[in-house]
Design a protein that fits this description.
Number of strands: 0
Protein name: DUF4455 domain-containing protein
Domain DUF4455: 2-51
Shape: rod-shaped
InterPro entries: DUF4455 (IPR028089)
Distance between the termini: 67 Å
Radius of gyration: 26 Å
Helix content: 55-70%
Pfam family, one: DUF4455
Oligomer: single chain
Number of helices: 3
């Protein structure tokens, strides 16, 4: 009988809102989403600022940018 009580109590605990959707996790997710939006905006500004430079070194749209990038980004 005591075992059933403990198991039921544990199930109720695990099903509780605080365990299923912890407030700290929600806060961290919101923080990460805000940071992601800021980084995306920064990336957009950087790409916009280097766009003219990229079109200068790669005027032909047929040549992929990866042709100019060394390392793991370059496709062989």
């Amino acid at each position: 009988m005591q075992k059933k009580c403990v198991v039921q109590s544990f199930r109720e605990f695990m099903a509780s809102e605080q365990i299923q959707n912890p407030p700290i996790v929600k806060m961290e997710m919101e923080k990460m989403l805000k940071e992601q939006l800021l980084l995306s905006e920064q990336r957009g500004r950087v790409l916009k600022s280097v766009g003219p430079w990229l079109s200068y070194i790669n005027p032909a749209p047929s040549a992929p940018l990866s042709h100019f990038i060394p390392g793991p980004f370059k496709k062989e």
